[in-house]
Amino acid sequence: MPLSSEAILLESPWHTRQDSRVSVSVQDAPGGPVVSITGELDLTSATHLRALLMKTVEACPRGWGITLDLSRVTFCDCTGLHVLLCTRRLALSNRRPLVINAASPRMDRLLEITGTAPLFTSAR
Q1: What is the pLDDT of residue 105?
Q2: I want to staple 36 with a disulfide (CB 3.0 to 4.6 A). Which of 17, 24, 58, 69 is the partner?
């Protein structure tokens, strides 16, 4: 059963959330949802981002993957990275792989220097 955008929208008021620093949207795609994040991942946005990502994991059928598009992330601090790592742990414990398919240069650099980039790649 495909994950519908409507299911996430009904479960989460943050389906498409915009505030002064971050915008998040979830779109249905073959094989699982794509979460696109634009702006800053920091202490200010962490609570809403965490809630949205947890709802996305819960709504995603077991065995399907969740894809993150971080190509428009302009800033990410340790709080934002922590949200991504906790989401990965939850997703994997529910047999739902979490991968980053695109990342901004700043996000790529953060994942590289923290050694976490390999955690968000698909198993080959």
Answers
A1: 97
A2: 69
Domain chopping of the chain, boundaries: 5-120
* pTM assigned to the model: 0.82
Closest alpha carbon to 36 in 73, 78, 85, 82: 73
Report whether 65 contacts 96 (CB < 8 A).
yes
* Rounded Cα–Cα distance for residues 5 and 28 (Å): 6
76-87 pLDDT tens trace? 999 999 999 999
**DSSP letter string, the chain:** -PPPHHHHHHH-TTTEEE-SSEEEEEE--TTS-EEEEEEEESHHHHHHHHHHHHHHHHHSPTT--EEEEEEEEEEE-HHHHHHHHHHHHHHHHTT--EEEEEE-HHHHHHHHHHT-GGGGS---
Quick one: average pLDDT of 11-29? 66
The CATH number of 5-120 is 3.30.750.24
